[in-house]
Amino acid sequence: MVQKGRATSFEVTVDSILIFSKLQSGRFPDHTAITKQVSAVAEGMKPTFVTEYESQAPWSCQLL
């Protein structure tokens, strides 16, 4: 079930268990880690909190 959140939040829950919170971390998650966690739960594992983050914001730029 998808629930509408606050504009500043990015919360991910699996089986009603919070596995990531941007409000707590102040950062966005590594999307691969989220995908792996959801896949693991689909295979019968218990949900665990994701602590891997994006290495940099997708909207940032690098000057060479």
Description:
With 64 residues, the chain is of the alpha+beta class. It has one domain (7-53). 25% of the residues lie in helices and 14% in strands. The protein contains 2 helices and 2 strands, in the order ββαα. A two-stranded antiparallel ribbon has the order 1-2. β1 and β2 (17-21) form a beta hairpin. The longest helix is centred in the middle third of the chain and has 12 residues, at 31-42. It is globular. The model has no long low-confidence stretch (mean pLDDT 86).
Tell me the β content: 5-15%
Helix content: 25-40%
Strand order within the widest beta sheet? 1-2
Total beta strand runs: 2
Number of discrete domains: 1
Q: Which ranges are low-confidence, i.e. pLDDT below 50, for 5 or more consecutive residues?
A: none
Radius of gyration: 13 Å
**What quaternary form is this?**
single chain
Overall pLDDT score: 86
What structural class do the secondary elements suggest? alpha+beta
Main sheet characteristics: 2 strands, antiparallel
Distance between the termini: 44 Å
Order of helices and strands: EEHH
Number of alpha- plus pi-helical segments: 2
The shape, in one word, is: globular
Pfam family, one: Rdx
Keywords: Redox-active center
Organism: Paragonimus westermani
Protein name: Selenoprotein W-related protein
